[in-house]
Amino acid sequence: MHAATFNNSYGTVVPWLKSTGFCTHSLRLKDLGSPNTVREIGDQFLALTRYRRADRETEASIQAYFVDPGTMLLSRNGDEDLEGVPRVPLPSGARLRRELGDLLVGRRSTRVYTGDRIGVDQLASVVRAAGAVSGRAHVELLDGGEAEILFHTAPSPGGLYPIDIYVLALRVENLGRGVWRYSPRTDSLVHEGDAAVMKDAMDAFAVPEEIISLSQAAAVLLLIARPWKVMRKYGPRGVRYLFIEAGTIAENIHLACGSLGVGSVDCASVADDELHNALGLDGEMECLAHAVVLGVPG
Description:
The chain has 298 residues and is of the alpha+beta class. It has helices spanning 2-9, 25-30, 41-48, 56-63, 68-75, 100-106, 120-131, 195-203, 227-234, 238-260, 272-279, and strands at 88-89, 133-140, 146-152, 163-169, 178-183, 188-193, 219-225, 263-266, 287-295.
C-alpha cells in the first residue's frame, strides 16, 4: 500500500531518460520532476487549452453566434450533409422503465456477450437516449422572422452538437448488417456502408476477445466528432468540451442499456486511422471520439 501511494504521488528524476529508446509511460511519470523533461502531448494539450481572461479572439468568435447568421447556423444543425439522403425511420422504442437510482447503483460494464440479437426497438431507445431531439424553441431574429432551435437528450457546448452517432449493426433484428448514422432531426437511420465496410471498421478494433467478446456483440456505437464545429466558436478549448459531450452521450447509452437489460462497455482499443479509412473519414474534420459495445450479456 505504501509503495503504491509513493509511486502514484511522487516523481523521481531519471537523468538518462532522454537516451533511452524505449520509455514506458510510467517511466516518463517518474521523470516529471526533471527540468529537462520533454512534455508529453497530453501535457501540451492541457496547457494549450486553458482558458485565459481577455481572450479577445475567442470572445469575438463566441459573439458571432448571437447574431442572425449564427442563429440560422444553429437552426440547421445536424442535417448539413444529409439533405435528400434516403432514411430508415426508427420504430417505437422499448420503454425505459427502471428508476435512475437503481440504474446508477447497478450499472456494470458487460464484456462477454452471447452472440444473440437485440431488437431494433431496443437499439432505437438507446440511440434516442444518446442524442434524440428532446425539445424545440423558436428564436426571434434581429432582422425579423424566427428560427427553430433543437435541444437533444445530451447537453452540448453552445448547442453545437459536434458528435454524430454511428451504428455498426452486427446482430440487430430487422436492421441490415452495415454502418448506419442516426439523424436526430428526423429520428431515422441513414445508411453509411454495407457489411463489407462494417467488417473493415470492426477490424480496426484491437481488443482481445478474452477482454471483450467483440465477435459476439450485437452492435457498436461510434461517436464520430467534428472538432471544428465546436472549435469554430470556442477555439482549442472546444476540444475539451467535445470530449465532455462524448462522455455524457456514453453515460446516456449505458443507462439506457441498463434499463433494457442490454450489456454495454466502453472500448478505447481502436486503431483510429484504420477506422477512419474504413468509414471514409479524414481524421481531422471528422474523427472518432469514442466507442461503446452493445450486446446480450453472456
